[in-house]
C-alpha cells in the first residue's frame, strides 16, 4: 500500500481534492498496474493496441484534504473471459480504512492502426488482465 502524494495544485477553492484529480490519480494507478503485468507503453506501441474507456464515474463519499493519507485500491470488478471488456474499480481509502471515493471505469482495447476495437486481444493482454487484482465479488461476464 502506497499513500498518494497530493499537491497544492490538486485542491479546489474549498481546499479539498478537485474532482478531476480523482480521475487522473486512478488512471495513473491503472497504468502502473498494467505495467507490472507486462502491458506497458513499449508493448502497446509495438503491438499497436491501447486501452479505451467507454464510461468513467466517481462517487464521492468524504473529502480528501492535502494532509489526508489516502491510498488507492485498484481491482477488476468484471471482465469478459477474453479480456476484451472490463470494469475496473478504484477505491480511495484513508489509512483508517475509511472509503472516501469509489471510481469505476468500463473499457476495452483498441487497435491503434485500424482505430477499432482489438479482437482478439493480444495474448499479453489476456495474461496481464488475468493476473490483475480482482475484487472479492469479481465476475466474468
TrEMBL record:
Keywords, comma-separated and alphabetical: Hydrolase
EC number: 3.1.2.-
InterPro entries cross-referenced by the UniProt entry: HotDog_dom_sf (IPR029069)
Single GO molecular function: hydrolase activity
Name of the protein this chain belongs to: Acyl-CoA thioesterase
Keyword Transport applies: no
Gene3D superfamilies noted in UniProt: Hotdog Thioesterase (3.10.129.10)
UniProt xrefs under Pfam families: 4HBT_2 (PF13279)
Amino acid at each position: 500500500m502506497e499513500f498518494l502524494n497530493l499537491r497544492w495544485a490538486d485542491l479546489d477553492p474549498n481546499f479539498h481534492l478537485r474532482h478531476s484529480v480523482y480521475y487522473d490519480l486512478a488512471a495513473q494507478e491503472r497504468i502502473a498496474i498494467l505495467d507490472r503485468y507486462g502491458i506497458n507503453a513499449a508493448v502497446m506501441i509495438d503491438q499497436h493496441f491501447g486501452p479505451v474507456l467507454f464510461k468513467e464515474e466517481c462517487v464521492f463519499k468524504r473529502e480528501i484534504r492535502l494532509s489526508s493519507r489516502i491510498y488507492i485500491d485498484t481491482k477488476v470488478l468484471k471482465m469478459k473471459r477474453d479480456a476484451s471488456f472490463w470494469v475496473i474499480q478504484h477505491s480511495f481509502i484513508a489509512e483508517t480504512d475509511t472509503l472516501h471515493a469509489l471510481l469505476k471505469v468500463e473499457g476495452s482495447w483498441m487497435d491503434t492502426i485500424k482505430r477499432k476495437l482489438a479482437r482478439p486481444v493480444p495474448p499479453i493482454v489476456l495474461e496481464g488482465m488475468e493476473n490483475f487484482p480482482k475484487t472479492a465479488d469479481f465476475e466474468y461476464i
